[in-house]
Amino acid sequence: MKDLMGKAIWDFYHDDGWENLLTETTISELDDLPVEYLFRDFEGMNKVEQKALELCYGKVLDIGAGAGSHTLYLQNERKLEVTALDVSPKSVEIAKLRGVKNAVCQNMLDFSGETFDTILLLMNGTGIFESLSTIDMYFSKLNSLLKEDGQILIDSTDILYMYERDEDGGIFVPSENYYGELDYWVHYKGDSEEPIKWLYLDFVTLKNAAENNGFQIERILQEDDSYLARITKK
């Protein structure tokens, strides 16, 4: 992994000739991702993020923490004990420099030894599941990390709106796989990362997957095509 996201975060923090990231997916063209967005404060976050942070309690695991913006709010404003987890070494280093007290560079599938009251997965948290074929593996891991009376707060977007429609309103979606399964590329300063598998889930599909894995789920907030869900053990 070239860790281009981490390099951009590192460059921005150190004001070292940073540039905006460029991202693209299987169904979307190149798009700017301003690096400063990854350093936003609570007021700069969307309603889904803000609601999720307000609902956090107890000991929190922030999966995919990036530069640590969510963690810092929970740690400094909510006074919660938070572990920031990310696979990007440079992002974790910057999170620590920004004041995150406990930041770990590790894949969530390899992380163990603790359980949490709240597990937080934001900025399309379902993306980490990769595909419908691997989602059960991730739910099993989440189950092992979650206390019996704990909660998982996760967001996603139903991206059906991104597909073309015919004149009768029919939607052209892939027949070989679920329409939310995408390849995701990151580009930075002329360099490109290998594509990763990234999963967007409509709420009904997430609900079915959660219930099939012994969880119960409720939709907390709907914002256009995006939503926040709370998942708990049955």
Fold and architecture overview:
The structure is a single chain. The protein is of the alpha/beta class and 234 residues long. It has one domain: Rossmann fold (3-Layer(aba) Sandwich), CATH 3.40.50.150. It is built from six helices and twelve strands. It has helices at 4-13, 47-55, 69-77, 89-97, 135-145, 203-212; strands at residues 21-25, 28-33, 60-63, 82-86, 103-105, 116-121, 146-157, 181-188, 191-192, 196-199, 215-223, 226-233. The strands form two sheets. The chain has a seven-stranded mixed β-sheet, sandwiched between helices. Strands 1, 2, 8, 9 and 10 form a five-stranded antiparallel β-sheet that branches. Strand 11 and strand 12 form a beta hairpin. Helix 1 (4-13) packs parallel to helix 4. It is globular. The mean pLDDT is 96.
What descriptive keywords fit this protein?
Rossmann fold, alpha/beta, five-stranded antiparallel sheet, seven-stranded mixed sheet, 25% helix, single chain, 234 residues
